Amino acid sequence: MSFSKLVSLFLILHLLNPTVVLSSSSLSSSNGLSEIPKKFLDFAKRQELVDWMVGIRRKIHENPELGYEEFETSKLIRQELDKMGIPYKYPVSVTGVVGFVGTGKPPFVAIRADMDAFSMQELVEWEHKSKHPGKMHACGHDAHVSMLLGAAKILKEHLEELKGTVVLVFQPAEEGGGGAKKMLDEGVLEDVDAIFGLHVAPDQPIGTVASRSGPLLAGSGFFDAVISGKGGHAAIPQHSIDPILAASNVVVSLQHLVSREADPLDSQVLTVAKFQGGGAFNVIPDSVTIGGTFRAFSKESLLQLKQRIEEVIKGQAAVQRCSATVDFYENKKPVPLFPPTINNKDLHELFQKVAGDMLGTDKIKDMQPQMGSEDFSFFQEAIPGYFFFLGMQNEDSPPLKYFRSPYFMINEDVLPYGAALHASLAARYLLAAEPKNHSPLENSHDEL
């Protein structure tokens, strides 16, 4: 059966059987469900599979590519899927790849990895250091791709465990490029009932996971403001309208907009990280540019904060006889606002069962909401989704550097855990999903 026919079949079957719910009885550890995570982890720890994932990760690390430029990364992914006999759709959102493992029938569940690197010069001296100056996998996306391919191999070797279809989402441009939103707009999740994603955590012990139900990561936005006055010589400031003074007052006033509440979910963050004005010691400039980011744990708070930022900037500028324009990149950036990452309650329960069966309940950490943002949240706005962090710090090793550091490193021992968790969550979700309506045509089509 051709791939185009497979995709059409997916659409037809899902329209006939669109809604899936998780049954509390089927989420139990009966009928051998609790053995799946252990079995998958044992499989993922086989030396040949570990070596394969490590090799893929190192190839990607050596050749980092920025958002929507992941052509070689995408090519490597497609080559490995071809070797496994896994059909896929390409290109999706420029460089994205979407694969399919399972029966080709509902229910559909997705597991996602981001592919892009970061604009940074790597300072780690090792055999597989980035070969492209100014580009580095400083956030672990190379490991994420390797783990998702590892999950694909596990699932392909355990098709008997799949009672539906797993959609493999290899996403471009997570680092501010809005790749998730672009994939969503292109219909990647139209047939999918739930989606899972993960991120490595350098500050958590290996073999542990951390997450929570509800808001996990903040939504975020960016702004630039140009505050204009009247330039002149510093010796006669009375003949000028000083935009630096106005911009300084704006920055102070902006800090009063946000609050750190006892409940982290009520907190907001606003950071002015750019302040550019003037180029000489004795010249008052005509204008000053400031810029920064703002964050909150609900979209409503985010929009309210956005409105107040503009009001404060323009109002404080006017107090100093200056004018101001504020740009929130609504017509420039692919996504002007990232929504908060909010985990589905039912999927949280499933995650706890799967992770507990695989790692032990003592290895599941309840994570406090963090002000970082993640474009996985766009997927969660469309369908139930769950995002979690996977520890990779060895107890007897020096502390790993945090994300966005030029010294960031991956502990490759983490790869089997990520692959097995991806595969187990997908397989257990499909086994727990009970279609509300059964299609009479469901058994009349060939499987993948």
UniProtKB/TrEMBL annotation:
Q: Which GO terms describe its biological process?
A: auxin metabolic process
Stored Pfam families: M20_dimer, Peptidase_M20
Provide GO CC annotations from the record. Answer: endoplasmic reticulum
> NCBIfam families in the record, alphabetically?
amidohydrolases
What does the Swiss-Prot or TrEMBL cofactor note state?
Answer: The Mn(2+) ion enhances activity.
Signal peptide (UniProt feature, chain positions): 1-23
The source's domain of life comes to: Eukaryota
Q: Which UniProt keywords apply?
A: Hydrolase, Manganese, Metal-binding, Signal
Q: Which family does it belong to?
A: Belongs to the peptidase M20 family.
Which residue ranges does UniProt annotate as crossing the membrane? none
Q: What is this protein called?
A: IAA-amino acid hydrolase ILR1-like 4
Q: Enumerate the cofactors the protein uses.
A: Mn(2+)
Q: Which organism is it from?
A: Durio zibethinus
Q: Name one GO molecular function term.
A: metal ion binding
- Please indicate if the UniProt record lists Hydrolase as a keyword: yes
Give the Peptidase M20 dimerisation domain ranges: 219-316
Provide the binding site for Mn(2+).
C139, H141, E175, H199
Give the matching CDD domains.
Answer: M20_IAA_Hyd
What gene is it encoded by?
Answer: LOC111274594
